[in-house]
Amino acid sequence: MHSFSLYFLTYYYCVMQGGHVEAVIANMTALQKHVAFFDRNNDGIITTSEMFEGYVAIGCDAAFSRATASSISAGVGPKTSPADAPSPHLSVYIEYIHKAMHGSDTGAYDAKGRSAPEKEWGLIYKLASDEEGFLHRDSVRGIYDGSVFFKLEKQRTSFRSDV
């Protein structure tokens, strides 16, 4: 029996902190944690619009965010959608994210979605490095468990409220 409510009772609980809902994720693989940031309403399903919002929240421009969200949804959505998911299968289901892994992946996650910290860089360097161009250890670790996305969004929100 496939039940998302059971999934969330097991994996998610939310804590209100200063008016911002922060997902506290237990028993998830690193890969699930990595993508959970983009699940903006914490329902276990990442829509294209949620993915777009997530990329904008971490500092990507709208054009990049739209293109990336569309391509990821088209490529990953069908692989992670359960048989009973509504068509078109463009939403990414966190529970099944491991099914989207393929041979040309960076190897940052193993077949079960656990992290292999010695792999993966790119966009995160641009977004998470400091003013001197250094990417700190906690940011690197945060790439794998998704915590760096929450940190980047908080920094951007703080910066906008200071202006």
Automatic annotation (TrEMBL):
Coiled-coil ranges (or none): none
> What GO MF annotations does this protein's record show?
calcium ion binding; monooxygenase activity
Return the InterPro entries for the record. Caleosin-related, EF_Hand_1_Ca_BS, EF_hand_dom
Write down the Pfam families for this protein, in alphabetical order: Caleosin
Q: Please give the PROSITE patterns that the UniProt record associates with this protein.
A: EF_HAND_1 (PS00018), EF_HAND_2 (PS50222)
Write down the superkingdom of origin. Eukaryota
What range(s) does the EF-hand domain occupy? 26-61
What family, per the record? Belongs to the caleosin family.
User: What protein is this chain from?
Assistant: EF-hand domain-containing protein
Q: From which source organism is this entry?
A: Eragrostis curvula
